[in-house]
Design a protein that fits this description.
It is a single chain. The protein is built from 10 helices and 5 strands, in the order αααββααβααββααα. It is of the alpha+beta class.
């Protein structure tokens, strides 16, 4: 790729990369996207874009994540407001149910998942691994699944797994007192 000298073009390329990626990008990705071949220039461009976005946008933001990656995202407080306007869900409903079950029950074996979710779970697991939302460890012939840090970042979940489980459990308990309580999966989907 030819080195880009024009700062406006480099800025446009970084904006385009952040907007279209739909996932966090490392600085190395943004350097390649900018075409500047310079870490310093790319950081300066990124900081400029972040400042402009803070003053120009109210519901979207560019965030630096703990692993030093950057993501262009909707502010978490607006996600429930716009959910009905989203054109296509990231995950099919069945796969999302499998993910919410893994999040709640983790660590969980493939055997337990198949017993609970049926044999279709294998395609869900494949998709979730490709998205890097889950990981597994081999224990003998079984695979033990748990969620990843990317899953937590993507769904805006703070804290460790025990904290996540406690939050999920308290939501389930709270809704269980209602006259027509939703299922655990419905609660998990609302949280996620």
């Amino acid at each position: 790729m030819a080195k880009i000298e024009n700062e406006d073009e480099a800025t446009a390329r970084v904006e385009a990369a952040l907007y279209s990626a739909g996932r966090p990008l490392k600085i190395e990705d943004l350097i390649r996207a900018s075409g500047t071949e310079s870490r310093t220039k790319t950081y300066n461009i990124l900081n400029s874009i972040m400042k402009k976005s803070k003053s120009a946008f109210k519901a979207i933001e560019i965030v630096t994540l703990p692993d030093e990656s950057y993501v262009f995202q909707l502010k978490p407080e607006y996600s429930s407001t716009v959910k009905k306007y989203a054109s296509k869900p990231v995950l099919p409903k069945a796969t999302l149910k499998t993910l919410s079950y893994i999040a709640y029950m983790q660590p969980i074996s493939s055997k337990q998942l198949v017993e609970t979710r049926g044999s279709g779970v294998y395609s869900h697991l494949k998709e979730l691994r490709q998205l890097d939302f889950i990981t597994h460890q081999n224990v003998g012939r079984l695979k033990i699944y748990s969620t990843t840090e990317k899953f937590q970042k993507y769904f805006g979940i703070q804290g460790d797994v025990d904290n996540l489980k406690q939050r999920l459990f308290s939501k389930i308990r709270k809704t269980a007192t209602q006259t027509n309580p939703p299922s655990e999966t419905q609660v998990l989907q609302k949280i996620i």
